[in-house]
Amino acid sequence: MAEKYTRKRKLEQPDHAGQTALRLFGQLKDQRVRLCIVAVSILCYTVLNVFTPYYSAGVIDRLFGAIQHCVETGEIFSIPWQPLGQEMALLAVMYLLTAVFYQLQSFLMASVAEQLILTLRQQIGQKLNRLPLKFFDGNKPGEILSRVTSDLDKVSETLQTGLLRLIIAIGTLIGAVAFMFYYSWILTLMFLVFTGISLLVTKFVAKKNLICAAERQEALSALTGIAEEYYTGRDVIRAYNHEQESIDAVDDMVERLRIATRRADFLTNCVNPLIRLLSRISQAVIMLIACSWMLDGTMTVGIVQAYFQYMNIASEPLTETSYMVNSLQSALASTERTFKFLDADEEIPDTAMPVHPEHVRGEIAFSHVSFGYSPEKILMRDISFIAKPGQKIAIVGSTGAGKTTLINLLMRFYEVNGGAITLDGIRTTDMTRRELRRNFGMVLQDTWLFGGTIAENIAYGKPGATMEEIRTAAKAAKVDHFIRTMPKGYDTVLDNEAANLSMGQRQLITIARVFLCDPPVLILDEATSSVDTRTEVEIGKAMKKLMYGRTSFVIAHRLSTIRDADMILYMEHGNILEQGSHRELLEQNGAYAELYYSQFA
Q: pTM, whole model, 2 decimals?
């Protein structure tokens, strides 16, 4: 069962890194002021960080000279305010300002990153409402959740720390190397040789790390998907005694994620120590030479300590750069996947000049409708029928015959490839989806209740309903009695997908929801399939009263429930083979008659 989650796909390596980065920063146009302050802070921090060692060289030399003078003359050592005291105070202020600018840019960048992620999550939330059903049919829930959670969290973390550190590292590295050349080109060339070796090692490790990070993200998406699937299908798993198989499948996914995470974390964390080791070796070699030059008088104490500071300054950005390049690549890949989601094809926009019918009678007409989930595979061809206001239309056929697809087309969950569907003579495409769907009430075979009170669930289609209206609808659906037996009645909170209610009780609440909406057109997809026979009879009476004067579409497998239908549509392979009343279809002695007699043999 878990095989579909183990397929390999291309991950982590962004296909268009430049375009993705530009688009990501295009999302920051509303935060230009903060970004400008961050840029100024980075510039000031980098300049101070690079200039301070150079300034300290002169201060240290003068301080060392003052100490030597006191040692030679025997005078008591003291630091005069002019000029050494002022220089040391200025040096301290420079160090203080360096810390202030660093904290300022870190604080503002964190705010910028979180605001960006909030914007992206809002765009994703709005996008989900504009996506057609075929998108959800073709994508795993776990992968969609991964876009909203782990992918965006990775982007936020990289923006807050990685990007900031990378920019600072590049600026600091250039400045430090320039001053190192100023002091000694020989020592700097030696440093650059060690740096070249470090970069080669980093490139090798980064390539391996990219592959491992991709495997980790794939394993995380697969685990999220299979956990969601098994949780949803827990009853089926237990019914078929597949508990151990499901446990083993989850264990396999967890083990796969553990191995992938271990590899990725090892490579990610080994870069810093490895580069740091090479850096320390280079520092030791260079400092031995520099100290020998200091003893020869070629270099002063201040210059040696300043050069040592510059080596540390240059080595640390090198370590940061090698580390953050990996994180930035991974973050860009996550961003690219998020943008691909945001760029997915949406529903066809509503017409710019929609028709708003004042009173809907409920006449539905399919006129030469054709439809396919893809242009190459047309499921329905030339479907035509008319449902008069107040008629009961039954749709029957084997599983996969296209009954639910017909309803989806009526509700504009999918768009037709040809022909037209009209409501009271108005093309459904000439109405907004909201205007169209407010005229329909649906009771599906799969019940859906959300976390909230029973009253809120019944009033889902009519939020402003009064408690009296809610009770009236519940009584009509024969659900009022058991609601009043609940601990808090209509204020009882449904939890864990309404696990505290039976399947039949959940179905009754969804039926009460439709009673309250009082729509001109009803759609009942096996609405009584989850209730007992006695309750079905009672609901049938209430439904008959509810359907009076309203157009009703009933999908049914038990043909005994639709013998009184005004018109029966018998479907096979997406097409209507027969249509007519129950008596007319029996007289034709065709496919419907065969199906009917097979149920009552």
A: 0.64
